[in-house]
Amino acid sequence: MMAAISAARLGADVTVLEHMDRIGKKILSTGNGKCNYTNRKQGFRCYRSENPAFVLPSLQQFGFEETVAFFKSLGIVPKERNGYFYPASGQASSVLDVLRMELRRLNVTIQTNCAVAFVRKHRQKFEIKAGNKIFVADKCIFACGGKAFPKSGSDGSAFCQIERLGHTFVSVVPALVQMRAKPSFFPSIAGIRTDAVIHLFVDEKEAGRDRGELQFTKEGVSGIPAFQVSRYAARAFEQKKKVCASLDLVPDFTDEELKRELTGRFFRQDQKTAEEALIGFFPKKLIPVLLKENEISLHIAAADISKDKIKRLSHYLKHMTFELTGTEGFDKAQTCAGGVSTAEIHADTMESSIVSGLYFAGEVIDVDGICGGYNLQWAWSSGYVAGTHAARN
Ligand SMILES: Cc1cc2nc3c(=O)[nH]c(=O)nc-3n(C[C@H](O)[C@H](O)[C@H](O)COP(=O)(O)OP(=O)(O)OC[C@H]3O[C@@H](n4cnc5c(N)ncnc54)[C@H](O)[C@@H]3O)c2cc1C
Predict the structure, then answer these.
(1) pTM of this prediction?
(2) 241 found inside a domain
């Protein structure tokens, strides 16, 4: 949609081919239905790819400021929360509505229920077989998304067309997704949310870390910090590597401070059981697991917990380490890692370096953003660049 608007604003005659019954379906699910459409904090560290610096020329041409101004001009009043931007209406549908209205104003033709089945370049023109028609165009932009959340339409069905045109893909794996853990105690702590740092280890080397509200699920870990590191886990599982997570459940305490705090706490509350003495420090449902994992009886008097056990518990709380067995699949992922290799796309125009006149935008490219509005920002930025340059050249 952004590519179509940008090209049409420069006078191009644009047709959007969409295989679903309507365009932009995924936008409706973004930001829990509120659409976190950009973030004030930008930089290539917010994007992951074989070549993260690839995003810079696009962000320079159409970055955060341009995005906010663009949506304001279409009617979206921005509402900022800690740098995260949402429409003031609190409705993702507003973002989709204003894009659709702008496409209508620019007379962009939208063909829905129209699956792209074949694309070839013939005598300087693109022939695109979609639905039961053949479309002929001077330029062609693939903005077909990745494989995440396929019920919204992005199912990777256009990937083979892109490969047929000579492009290669960095293999695509789920990202911003829940991870599954081995220990059997997860069902008993499902639903607990707690501030934590997650460290992800691949073959014992740290591959990523993040801090925020972590959520335990029946199967493993979720929440923004788990999402942020999940793409590294998914890639490692693809390569059959061993993946572990280590949680720091008390990030505001150093190891030494925590040991002192626990010793004092158990001493001061000597009339309580071990379980009771931890209430108020950790979520109640989590306490039995913390004690059992450290072989401390729930019912032992707090004063009777040995120094060694306190040391062990304290270490566990700072380094709760467990093996991960996988990530959830594309159906539950918010984005995917991998896509068309950035080595085959000109970063300043989004034009293919293999087929002239062919462009790419959005998640189909090997770029995935972290949580916080970066995936949509990438779609807007790369869409603007692809549409503008396709129309100009
Ligand atoms: C639940 C959820 C929440 C999210 N929340 C946020 C958020 O708050 N902020 C954020 O920045 N990002 C968020 N994202 C990620 C973001 O939505 C995507 O990265 C972004 O939509 C990608 O845009 P795109 O245009 O590249 O692809 P898509 O939005 O996936 O659009 C691709 C389009 O191409 C169509 N298509 C695919 N194949 C064909 C074919 N063969 N023929 C015809 N049409 C085809 C699809 O139907 C689809 O309409 C979220 C994602 C999910 C799933």
Answers:
(1) 0.95
(2) yes
